[in-house]
Amino acid sequence: MKTFFENVSDQNQIIGINITNEEIQQLETLSEQRGVLNNRTLVNGEGNFAGFAGELIVKKYIGNLIEKADHIHYDYIFQELKIDVKTKGNCKSKPLIEYDCTVPQYQLNIQDCDIYIFTRISATKSIGWICGWTTKNKFLKTSQLRQKGESYNFIGRTSVGNHGVSLINQLYTIESFKNFLTHRATCARVSITNT
Fold first, then answer.
1. How many structural domains does the chain have?
2. Long-range contacts from 137-141, C-beta under 8 angstroms, 24+ separation
3. What pLDDT, in 10s, does the model give residues 28-48?
């Protein structure tokens, strides 16, 4: 049986996607229009570009299998699966497999989504990386809570659920997710409830 849950175990499985100058301009315009989203925004709207760029590179890689969702809890939807893209910006180089992926605790508590896809965007804005994905259920079971102000590679600005990209922490490859969606679109609907 084909597996759709291949763990990230090699840096080559972190996929780089180029962002064109035209796309950068469009993303900057969207970022300015959005402004500061709410009082829980960690960087006063400065993360808007990275967030939009993360969504863009996921769409570019996965293609028309997913549709943009204008929803507060998730970014894309495929059949009934709700997909949220989590992004960190201002990266100096390609992420390593041991880099952390995080979801703010307040979002974990209320967010109505099924899947998290983790991305990073370069400081130059010209490239982004898709680190991998996991189900929200699995993230809740395996992530480690880090409190605001706690030091772990950096000082946290808010309490977060923390999850490594590495094999040990079982983040799945984005290629396996793409295969999963393709299979789900053409065959039986593979369940994610126990993953």
1. 1
2. 137/192, 137/193, 137/194, 137/195, 138/170, 138/195, 139/103, 139/108, 139/163, 140/108
3. 998 888 765 555 554 445 678
